[in-house]
Amino acid sequence: MSDPQLSLSPADPVIRPAEPADAEVLHRFIVELAEAEEFPGAVTAQQQDVAEALFGPRPVAEAVVATVDGEPAAFALYYPTYSTIVGRPGLHLEDLYVRAEHRGSGLGRLLLAHLADLAVQRGCARLEWWVLRTNDPALRFYRRLHARGLDEIEVMRLDGEPLRTLAAAGRPTAGVEHRS
Fold first, then answer.
1. In the predicted model, what is the mean pLDDT of residues 104-121?
2. CA angle, 60 as apex, 56 and 62 as ends, to 5°?
3. What are the φ and ψ backbone dihedral angles of 83, each rounded to 5 degrees?
4. Where would I find the H helices in the chain?
5. Which of the two ends of the chain, N or C, has the fewest CB atoms closer than 10 A to its terminal CB?
6. How far is CA 2 from the centre of its chain?
């Protein structure tokens, strides 16, 4: 992989790993992304949540920041996955965001290419992500890259009270031992 820190001119984008000092801008970008996508529901994550997830004692995700003229312009947040079917790891792209003034510049494609290269280097079989069905510009962009939608799976979620109810059903009762 070429050094993402190298740049031909100050206007060329630079992609670099996120650092703890980026937590504020990453949180701001997450809020901007939710607003741009008209995501249903409020962003409840706080800056500290982002910092803990990326840089805490047990990081669960990674991120890269793209800068233009030294200013943050975009980011991608991702985490490792594993497929029992192919027996190899993968990467899940959680968020990809390019600020409005940089859209159409190729920055999104550059970020995806960076993650694809990272996935290949790590021996991953897949780079996957979810996209809102209502986000037509993103769907068109991804299809131009030859990404394909998956008809064979349905994304499922437990949260809120159903999550707590199922969790309570799995707790040990007197005389019954549960192991995780």
1. 97
2. 90
3. -110, 120
4. 23-36, 47-55, 107-121, 136-144, 160-169
5. C
6. 22
* 143: Cβ contacts below 8 Å, ≥ 6 apart: none
Q: Which three-class secondary structure state does DSSP give residue 179?
A: coil
Predicted TM-score (pTM) of this structure: 0.85
Pair 45, 27: CB distance under 8 Å: yes
pLDDT greater than 90 at residue 39? no
CA separation, residue 161 to residues 63, 157, 172 (Å): 30, 12, 19
Integer Cα distance of 100 and 161 in angstroms: 37
Burial 137-173 (b: 16+ CB within 10 A, else e): ebeebbeeeeeeeeeeeeeeeeeeeeeeeeeeeeeee
What is the rounded CA–CA span in Å between residue 57 and residue 20?
A: 12
Active-site residue 142, yes or no? Answer: yes
Residues 82, 141: Cα–Cα separation, whole Å = 26
The catalytic residue among 78, 79, 82, 142 is 142
Closest CA to 137 of 92, 91, 93, 98: 98
Q: How far apart are the C-alpha atoms of 82 and 138, rounded to whole Å?
A: 25
Look up residue 26 and give its two tokens. Answer: 């990453």
